[in-house]
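ok new one. same drill as before - structure tokens go in, u give me an amino acid for every spot. 362 of them this time. try not to just spam alanines like last time pls lmao
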């Protein structure tokens, strides 16, 4: 009599009868992809930036799998790229695009423009677009970078479909430097986060991505090791508590490390060539190979700093001289409004003017 277990391999592998291993791999990859997508959405909702950055590096690798060809996977990849930029939206020293003048929220607006089909309706898409553009300007004004805020509007005019009324409104706010204008306060950054979270809830409801999550939950609930895990967790917590004879010391807050100091080689930034994401005219293959911007790989020990500013050019000196001739010395903020000094501040203009006076070039 033949043993019914003769077909079982002795090496512990699962027998595959009439099933292609590549097809099994495809299904498993899709489950892993969906699990990480749901996890990234959860980290975004809970504002867990460190966990988000740690997971998104792995998500990027899985998203390159050639088996993920369906449109929904492309959308999820772009959504995660969008969430990454929004999470760093208030950090002007974080860079995603090759153009260092493009702030995280500007880059987020560019990615969002390709996600119109993923939004529940046009009103949701338009609402998030307005919030992104309003906050892209507001963040610059809060940092005292009026010139950067003006650059945002110029960039929007060339790259984003924006209502004329909105551009005019934002232009007036920038011209008057109204950091706390009621319009900006109404379309706040917290409102942007809440609106994006609502978008994610609707998207996940229409595109369930929790099969692996549910299976893992059932396994944990029925696992005999659950109590052991709880015991280990309790021991870890108790081990961190001070003993009766120890002195309690106040913990000093330190800067968060968004990624390990030695990320994977694929995420190591290139000092001469930055990674960028082109949203327009992207093929399915390009999307599957998409990187989530240089910032995620370049935030290992601290926030990424922009490249050092270029030296003063003859053209910039001419702008400065013309501005002083027209408005007078000391009217630096007014001069900044008339010329593009490539992100320089009024203090920088004042210092440069002193140099020109000392060198008898003014």
């Amino acid at each position: 009599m033949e043993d019914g277990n003769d077909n079982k391999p002795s090496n512990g592998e699962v027998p595959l009868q009439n099933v292609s291993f590549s097809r099994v791999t495809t299904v498993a990859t899709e489950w892993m992809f969906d699990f990480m997508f749901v996890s990234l959405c959860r980290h975004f909702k809970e504002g867990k930036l460190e966990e988000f950055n740690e997971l998104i590096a792995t998500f990027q690798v899985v998203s390159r799998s050639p088996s993920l060809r369906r449109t929904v996977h492309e959308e999820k990849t772009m959504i995660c790229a969008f969430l990454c930029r929004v999470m760093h939206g208030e950090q002007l020293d974080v860079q995603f695009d090759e153009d260092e003048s493009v702030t995280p929220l500007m880059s987020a607006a560019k990615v969002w423009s390709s996600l119109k089909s993923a939004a529940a309706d046009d009103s949701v898409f338009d609402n998030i677009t307005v919030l992104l553009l309003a906050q892209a300007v507001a963040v610059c004004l809060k940092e005292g970078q009026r010139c950067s805020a003006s650059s945002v509007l110029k960039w929007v005019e060339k790259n984003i479909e924006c209502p004329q009324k909105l551009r005019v409104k934002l232009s007036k706010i920038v011209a008057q430097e109204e950091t706390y204008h009621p319009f900006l306060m109404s379309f706040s950054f917290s409102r942007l986060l809440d609106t994006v979270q609502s978008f994610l809830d609707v998207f996940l409801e229409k595109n369930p991505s929790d099969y692996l999550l549910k299976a893992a939950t059932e396994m944990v609930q029925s696992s005999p090791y659950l109590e052991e895990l709880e015991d280990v967790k309790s021991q870890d917590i108790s081990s961190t508590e001070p003993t009766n004879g120890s002195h309690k010391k106040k913990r000093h807050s330190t800067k968060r490390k968004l990624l390990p100091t030695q990320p994977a080689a694929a995420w190591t930034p290139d000092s001469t060539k930055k990674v960028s994401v082109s949203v327009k005219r992207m093929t399915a293959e390009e999307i599957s190979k998409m990187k989530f911007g240089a910032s995620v790989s370049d935030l290992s020990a601290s926030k990424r700093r922009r490249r050092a500013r270029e030296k003063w050019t003859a053209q910039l000196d001419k702008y400065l001289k013309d501005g002083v001739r027209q408005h007078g010395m000391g009217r630096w903020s007014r001069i900044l409004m008339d010329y593009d000094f490539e992100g320089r501040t009024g203090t920088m203009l004042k210092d440069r003017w002193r140099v020109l006076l000392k060198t008898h070039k003014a």
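The mean pLDDT is 75. and btw The CA atoms of residues 45 and 293 lie 21 Å apart.
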